[in-house]
Design brief:
This protein is an alpha/beta fold. The strands form 2 sheets. The chain has an 8-stranded mixed β-sheet. A two-stranded antiparallel sheet has the order 1-7. The protein has one domain: 3-Layer(aba) Sandwich (Rossmann fold), CATH 3.40.50.150.
């Protein structure tokens, strides 16, 4: 596994993450384009998650999501499954009002033992921010019932193509994420690479950015030149602007080599 050195102390990291959005991104974005991208990504993730749950016959009535941010994935889940008890652990209290308003039940990380056993644990783009990823998984999957599911997604080795990758402290690919799953006793693993292959990421992404900007400015159908990079809107119920926003990173495309993201599903033994 690859990680930064030296690591911040636990106190330094807790302080940083208590105001994560301000420290990492200068605050929560309200730009419609960013919102469209985030909601489109959430729909794409949900599509993959539902496919795994169906394949493994996992029935979900309760969810624990760690690091939901503004709650994009949570809202998509609750729109389809409104009766779900949806618990969230979020270190940045600035987004708590939005999470509560959208149906999330806020739980302090230290009190997950009070919610009983849940059917599904989710953490997308969180594990790369943890100082001890195996301990992180072990702790939060302790809230998972036998036979319950786990969904983890992380950037894949993003230090290879980003000049600035702060605030990530861990860097994953399939084998290292699978090792974390194995270390905490998870089984029925299903791992995929999604988005642009790292080997051609910069070149291909630049061309698609140009086509996206041309489509936005002219309203002409430049998407016709995008091929599979243009996501099938009907599959994930994407709006036109969400589909266009996803073109730049293509989270809907599964690759056979290291790509932007590594996505992992697993199940606790029955």
């Amino acid at each position: 596994m690859q990680f930064i050195h030296p690591m911040p102390s636990e106190q330094e990291w807790d302080d940083y993450n208590s105001s994560y959005f301000e420290n990492a991104h200068g605050g929560v974005s309200t730009w419609p384009w960013v919102k469209a991208y985030n909601s489109g990504v959430a729909k794409t993730r949900l599509h993959a998650l539902l496919a795994y749950l169906e394949a493994t016959d996992i029935n979900v009535k309760s969810v624990l999501e760690i690091g939901p941010g503004q709650g994009y994935l949570m809202r998509e889940w609750l729109a389809r499954h409104p009766g779900t008890s949806y618990y969230v652990v979020e270190s940045d209290e600035s987004v708590h009002p939005e999470l509560k308003a959208s149906g999330g039940i806020i739980v302090p990380a230290s009190q997950i033992d009070t919610i009983g056993k849940v059917d599904l644990v989710i953490a997308t783009h969180v594990i790369e921010h943890t100082l001890k990823p195996v301990e992180f998984l072990s702790y939060f999957t302790s809230a998972l019932r036998k036979g319950g599911g786990v969904f983890i997604e992380a950037p894949c080795l993003d230090h290879k193509y980003k000049t600035i990758f702060e605030p990530h402290v861990q860097f994953f690919e399939k084998s290292t994420l699978a090792a974390c799953f194995d270390a905490v006793g998870l089984r029925n693993l299903h791992l995929t690479y999604n988005g642009d292959p790292i080997s051609s990421l910069r070149r291909n992404a630049l061309l698609r950015k140009i086509l996206v900007k041309l489509q936005l400015k002219t309203r002409l159908p430049f998407r016709l030149f995008l091929g599979s990079y243009w996501p099938a809107r009907s599959i994930s119920n994407l709006s036109p602007i969400e589909a266009l926003a996803l073109v730049e990173t293509s989270p809907h495309i599964v690759q056979d080599q290291e790509s932007r993201w590594v996505r992992g599903f697993a199940q606790r033994e029955i």
